[in-house]
Structure formats: structure tokens, C-alpha cells
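Spend some time on the protein that follows and explain the fold to me:
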Amino acid sequence: MATDEVRKDLRAAVAARQELGPEYENEIIDSFLEKLDARDVQRRVGPYAEAAPRRHPSRETDPGGLALAIVSIIAAIPITAIAAGMVGPFGVVIAWFGLIAINVARTMSRRR
């Protein structure tokens, strides 16, 4: 049941115990057991150890949200002027509601 690596590590631990003496016995045993635990975890996790967990896109990995916000602010200036000139204050409210709705819709779609 023991693999060649475990046998090799056990032999190394026994040799270290013989060289260092009984005062280092606890440290040697702890080190050997940590190696066994690490191998056991690696064996149980297996191929899943390599896979990175999926993360939600953030500003660092998806700068599109920041770009949309900047474009929205730049576009808001002429849109506000046109809406105010053609419809009045109600047009400004409708125009800004549309700009805000676009940004909120993109944010909500990225969270899914």
C-alpha cells in the first residue's frame, strides 16, 4: 500500500532521527506526517487541484464596465442638451433614465 516515495521519506526520517538523536524526534515525526497529509490531500483532490475557481468578472479582468460608464458620461452632455432643447425638463429626466438603465442593465448582466 505504501508507495516508493512514502518508503523513501520514511527511511529519510529514520536516518535523520539516528543522526540527530532523540531530542529532534518530535520535529522529524511532525515533518513526516505533514508530508503524508499533503500527499493524502493531493490524492483526494486529484485533477481538481489544478482547476482554478471561477470568479466573477471584475474591473481588472473586464474593463468594459468602466468604458461604458465613461462613454455614458461623455454622451450624456449632448443628449441632455438635445433633450432639454426639444422636450424640456421632462426630456432630460427621460434621457438620464435611459443612460442609467443601460449602465444598470450591463452591471446586472455581468453578475450572472
Q: What stands out?
A: Residues 64-86 form the longest helix (23 residues).
